[in-house]
Amino acid sequence: MHVTLFYGLDDLIFNKKTLDKIKIDDIKLGRLELFQSKEFNCNALVLKIDDKNKKLEKIHNNLSKFDIVDEKINEFKFTPHITIAYVKKDFNIVDKDHFLNKKLKVRDVGYKVKN
Questions:
Q1: Is pLDDT at 115 greater than 60 in this prediction?
Q2: Number of folded domains that form the chain
Q3: Can you tell me the distance from the alpha carbon of 48 to that of 34, in angstroms, rounded to the nearest whole number?
Q4: Which ranges in the chain belong to alpha helices (H)?
Q5: Domain presence at residue 79
Q6: What is the pLDDT of residues 4-45, one digit of tens each?
Q7: What is the rounded end-to-end Cα distance, in angstroms, of the chain?
Q8: Contacts of 23 (CB under 8 A, 6+ apart)
Q9: DSSP state letter for 57
Q10: Smallest Cα–Cα separation from 12: which of 66, 71, 73?
Q11: Coil vs helix vs strand at 55
Q12: How far is the C-alpha of 112 from the C-alpha of 115, rounded, in Å?
């Protein structure tokens, strides 16, 4: 399972040592929600992350200072979440609050290069 802090960094310019400075002990979970995925013509089932202290948003903003590959990425507002699955458009969430206020320990902060 992962949380994307930023998407679209230029692999040739990004300083991976920056990740060593990022410290996240745990994350507090929010509600289950659906949002439309235009890319796959379905809905994404996501688990929101409670970022009331704005720690994840600050990390995201710091990462956004690096060069990015695609300027269209700036069109999307950063919303911390975990993507659970892509589901049919008529999918219904039975218990939106099932994970509310539960915490997950963060094992590490990593960097994935797009293949």
A1: no
A2: 1
A3: 10
A4: 55-63
A5: yes
A6: 888 777 666 666 777 778 889 999 999 999 988 877 889 999
A7: 19
A8: none
A9: H
A10: 66
A11: helix
A12: 9
Strand partners of residue 35: 44
Domain-embedded: residue 1? no
Both tokens assigned to 110: 């990593």
Contact (CB, 8 A) for 96 and 33: yes
Exposed (0-12), middle (13-18) or buried (19+): which is 2, by Cβ within 10 Å?
exposed
Residue type, 26: D
The answer to whether residue 75 sits within a structural domain is: yes
- The top-scoring range by mean pLDDT among 12-16, 30-34, 59-63, 69-73 is 30-34
The residue assigned the tokens 């202290």 is 53
Q: pTM for the complete prediction?
A: 0.79
Domain membership of residue 16 (yes or no) is no
Domain that includes residue 35, residue range: 29-105
Report the C-alpha gap between 99 and 32 in whole angstroms: 8
